[in-house]
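Support case: S-adenosylmethionine complex. Customer-provided input:
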Amino acid sequence: MPSSPEEKGFGQADPLLRRWAEKVFQPEDEVLREIRERSIREGLPAIAVGNFDGLHLEVLARAAGALKAVEIGTLGGYSGVCLLRGMGPHGVLHTFEFSEKHARVAGESFHKAGVAARAHIHLGPAATTLREIDAEAPFDLVFIDADKVGYPAYLAWAADHLREGGLLLADNAFGFGEIHRESTDPGVVALQKFNQELAGGGRFRATMLPTAEGLAMGVKVR
Ligand SMILES: C[S@@+](CC[C@H](N)C(=O)[O-])C[C@H]1O[C@@H](n2cnc3c(N)ncnc32)[C@H](O)[C@@H]1O
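Agent response - structure generated as follows:
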């Protein structure tokens, strides 16, 4: 049996491992594949979460027993469907999207996936529209996947609106491979601030799931 190196990096480089895992865990079914393909056909950018990230979201929502969740960054509804699947038949998702076109495609996705009654799309810049659900707090889960400069503010909102024990998830926490370097890019700088606050700000007990993009995850403790 080969052994692991003493200093371990994040993840494994061999793409065959991923193909093996896809075969065994089947992260993307027909419904999700249709959403990914239709979104691209409709001209949306190909920036939905990866198939395994979608499965992580479903399983994590399920493990957390989430019934009230918030998603910042809807796109075509791919990750929203994953979250709703994880929450089961009584789970409700508020999802926030800036673009009218993306919201329209997502609406169709929620309909096709049979979850439209439980998916509420809020249109406009999340920094403003998040206020629309303030009164419905506390939430069980918040997933951040929108403009990167907004991450620190979205984290602050989540810290104030999650229940204690609630789950914070954020995609692209590796800053597209730049998070550990000095940077002047406003998105990377914001993601660095976000990670530092999540890890050391005292409101969450947090870790980094070393997915391709980095899925930051924290449980609200205070
Ligand atoms: C990475 S995509 C989301 C992908 C989606 N979570 C998925 O995996 O299916 C980011 C989305 O956030 C939206 N967005 C960007 N800035 C925003 C803002 N300030 N408020 C709300 N939505 C925003 C974009 O229009 C885009 O649809």
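Residues 47-49, 73-76, 78-79, 96-99, 102, 125-126, 145-147, 150 surround S-adenosylmethionine (CB under 6 Å).

Case will auto-close in a few days if no follow-up is received.
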